Every structure is written in C-alpha cells, then in structure tokens.
Amino acid sequence: MSARDEILALLNRYSFTVDGGDLDGFAALFEQGEWSVEGNRPSRGAREIHDNVLSKIIIYPDGTPRTRHVNTNIELDIDEGAGTARGQRYVTVLQGTDGFPLQTIFAGHYHDAFVREDGRWRFASTVVHRPLMGDMSKHLRNTDFVET
Questions:
Q1: CATH code of the domain covering residue 136
Q2: Tens of pLDDT along 134-143?
Q3: Under a CB-based contact definition with an 8 Å cutoff, are residues 42 and 34 in contact?
Q4: Which domain holds residue 19?
Q5: Can you tell me the distance from the alpha carbon of 76 to that of 112, in angstroms, rounded to the nearest whole number?
Q6: Which of 15, 92, 118, 140 could connect to 69 by a Cys-Cys bridge, CB 3.0–4.6 Å?
Q7: Helical residues (DSSP H) of 31-107, grouped into ranges
Q8: How many separate domains does the chain show?
Q9: What is the dihedral of CA 12, 18, 19, 21, to 10 degrees?
C-alpha cells in the first residue's frame, strides 16, 4: 500500500471510530500524538484526548453518537525519505437522532501531521482551524469544547 493510501486509511479510521462509537479506538490513533482546536492547548496522548474531548461526546443506546464525519478537499504532502507528511482537509459532521432531524452540526478545516514509525504511518497531530458550529447540543455534553 502506498504512503498516500495508508494516510487516507488513517483519515477514514478517524471518522469510522468516532462515528461507530469506538472512542477508545479513536483515542488510540493519537496514543503518541495530539489533537486540538486552533488557539487552545492541545490534548496529548490517548488519555488526555479521551478526558478532554471524547468524554464529552453523547453516546446513544445504539452505541454511537449518531454522526457521520465527512472528509473532503484532502491535500497531502508526503516526504517518503523523511517519513513525515502534512495534510489538510475539510471535515463536515452530520447528525440525526430521534427528534433531531439530520443536519450539519459542525464544519472545520483540519490540519494534520503524520509520521512513519516502524514502517507504519500514524497521526502526529490534528489541529482544527476556523470551526463553524451548528446545533451541537445532541452531540456534546459541553458545547464550549473549543475553549479547552
């Protein structure tokens, strides 16, 4: 599999884990990385990301947050020799629950960094830039997460 394909698979795992309610799987993607919203202190490692971000996600009886993260406009700049890559993408989050019709609740411009270790690519960091927020009341217990 090419480096581009491996990194695209990581981006897909990002979405599939959180949308599937596998919050531990999502946190594991950042075991040695960090995640933040622009202007805020990054959460580093799986434990901090779980405590500062994922613990705020509302999980419904079906075991999911009833969301779909859609990645578009993906650009990747891969330096195979150095084992590093940078990328950017738009992420749009859709949600629909009982009594809450399907709608866009979030849109952000994500900037990602990746490193290759032991022949495998992993997230080094993800920073969400200029988020646009809709009604996040059915997704997060604390909708001021951009101030963490």
A1: 3.10.450.50
A2: 999 999 997 5
A3: yes
A4: 3-147
A5: 9
A6: 15
A7: 45-52
A8: 1
A9: 140
Average pLDDT over residues 29-45: 94
CA distances for 120 relative to 1, 66, 115, angstroms:
11, 30, 8
Residue in the structure block whose two tokens are 């698979």: 9
Read off the pLDDT of residues 91-116 as tens digits, 9 standing for 90 and up: 999 999 999 999 999 999 999 999 99
Q: What is the reported pLDDT for 148?
A: 33
Q: How far apart are CA 113 and CA 60, in angstroms?
A: 31
Q: Which residue is associated with the tokens 């990385």?
A: 33
Provide the pLDDT for residue 143. Answer: 56
User: Which amino acid, one-letter code, is at 127?
Assistant: V
> Which residue stretches of 44-143 are H helix?
45-52
